[in-house]
Structure formats: C-alpha cells, structure tokens
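Lay summary. Proteins are chains of building blocks that fold into shapes, and those shapes determine what they do. In this project we predict the shape from the chain. Here is one chain we studied, written as its sequence of building blocks.
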Amino acid sequence: MQDFFIAISLYAKPGREQALREHLIEVVAPSRHDPGSIRYELFQDQADARRFVFVEHWASPSDQERHHTRTAHIRRFNETGAEDVERIEFLHRLSRLA
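And here is the predicted shape, written in a compact code that computers can read:
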C-alpha cells in the first residue's frame, strides 16, 4: 500500500479561534502516536488567525480512517471542539507523485 496524505483546512467561528486552536493542539500529540501516523502537523494561517491547516502523512488510508473514526482524542474533539468550527474549507486526500 502506498503512503497516504491529507491536507485539511478548518475555519473557526468568529471570536472562537483561540478556543479552536487549543482544541486542535490537544489532538496533535496523541495523533502522532496513532498506528500508521508518519507526520501530523497543525498550522495557523499568518494572514487569517481563524484558519487552521492540518498536514497529515499516513502509512495507509485505513490507518487514517481508523484515526479519524475510532480514537478517543478525535472523538473528544468532535464532542467539544467541533462546535468552534465554522466550516471545513478544504479536505484533500493526496497521493505522492514525486
């Protein structure tokens, strides 16, 4: 199976960027230890503090799917932090070409 990459941008509700930032940071460390996680990084846009971007590298799509659907830290985010998200701006599932 080929490596699998995700790029996703979450946009915070007005005035909720700090709360969302804290919730997102909480998922980073445990996600880096999930089976199949190779790279799991969180960025904040320098021009717009409401925009957060994850860049993820997984050993396989099934590893990423398991992370996203079965882990306690993502479940906790969905229960407490997702309310701070105004929208998902993009979600790209990527394969490396070169």
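What the prediction tells us: The chain has a mean pLDDT of 96.
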